Amino acid sequence: MQTIPVGQYFVWAPNWLVALVLIVVAISLALIIHAVVQKLILRLSGAHQSLVSTLIRRTRGVTRYGLILFMLSAVMPLLPLDRGAADLANKVFIAALILLIGWVVLLSANLSADHYIGRFQLGAPDDLMARKAVTQVEVLKRIVDALIIVVAVGFALMTFDSVRQLGLSLFASAGVVGIVAGVALRSVLANFFAGLQIALTQPIRIHDVVIVEGEFGHVEELSSTYVVIRLWDLRRLVVPLSYFIEKPFQNWTLSSSRIIGTVFLYTDYTLPVETIRKKAKEIVEASGLWDKEVFNVQVTDIKENALEIRVLVSAADSGKAWDLRCEVREKLITFIRCEYPEALPRRRTEALIERVVSHDGAAPAGVASSDATPH
After folding, report:
1. Which of 177, 279, 280, 302 is deepest in the core (most CB within 10 A)?
2. pLDDT attached to residue 16
3. How far apart are CA 204 and CA 250, in angstroms?
């Protein structure tokens, strides 16, 4: 049956107005049907309403866009358009359909990646394998997303003759264009290939503890071009992906989250080191932060006015190691202040005392010949 343009029934109205009204009616009808169907599905979902609600939220845009295209395809034969306008409308419709297919592919890839990531539990003790898998999927997902968008937009534009001719001319001069594009997009391409290399070799992963440019923080986000590091004071450090390929940095959780913490004490020579060793072990064993792997107390240096005592303790991760170091440091200082106050760091003045004694024949009041004065 031959389709009769609606414009023949409205000869009193200009064709562009009739076409505009039909398009507005088609789009409005599509939006109403989309909203009604969504509400009906949610009402019938029952016990699975939360899952269905999440799926509808993720697919709302693409389903709405698809329904609008379907309604426009039904209305298009009725539009009072001349041959040139109808040809242009068909090309626009084909380009929109290609973009819709690309959107569906993009959405499917993202849903599959998110479903795979959801199987892993981040934040668990020593979650190395989970962070490794999540990092690979996150980086590759962004790269695949970019490729899908470029391909879909490219095919959509190729439906227009002018753009197709431009594409052919670009292919004809591919050498010059390649050189120009390589120079202009050098940083973009560097980050792109750096993202691939990071996804495969994984020098950093999601939630890794790193030190970059002297800043301590956790890897919070890995995009296709940059890395967001959440610093200890909740600031964000944004670093290009290529940085982690070209420059050195510290990764405290590359192979394991376990880490050794260090506590330094500076005391007078008279402090009994064995007593400090026993007290430190008592403090560590009573703490729930210690992982029972590493503990050691040693005199690591002799300063001009003090001993340097180093306490080594290990913990399951950097956060617990920090808290454990603070706890050991505070309790040892309290112990020394209460039990051996004379062993706190002092500046010795024996030479001055000897000179005073030799001059006056006796030490000044309040100063013993073998004592020391504080800083």
Report:
1. 280
2. 65
3. 10
- Matching residue, tokens 């699975």: 48
Torsions phi, psi for 215 (to 5 deg):
-105, 135
Amino acid at 19: A
> Mean of the pLDDT values across residues 23-44?
86
Give the whole-angstrom CA distance, residue 108 versus residue 148. Answer: 11
Cα separation, 203 vs 10, in Å, equals: 68
- Round to whole Å and give the CA distance between 63 and 100: 9
* Domain locations along the chain: 122-256, 259-344
User: How far apart are the C-alpha atoms of 289 and 327, rounded to whole Å?
Assistant: 10
Provide CATH code, domain 122-256: 2.30.30.60
Please give the pLDDT value at position 11. 52
Inter-CA distances, 27 with 5, 9, 30, 31, 296, Å: 19, 21, 5, 6, 74
Strand partners, 213: none
**Could you tell me which CATH number the domain at 259-344 has?**
3.30.70.100
Name 240's bridge partners. Answer: 226
Structure tokens at 94: 């084909």
Measured distance CA(204)–CA(227) in Å, rounded: 10
How confident is the model at residue 62, as a pLDDT? 87
Cβ within 8 Å of residue 265, ≥6 positions away: 276, 308, 309, 310, 311, 329, 332, 333, 336
| pLDDT score for 123 | 62
DSSP string, 286-337: H-TTEEEEEEEEEEEEE-SS-EEEEEEEEESSHHHHHHHHHHHHHHHHHHHH
d(CA 27, CA 34): 10
pLDDT tens sequence across 358-367: 555 554 444 4
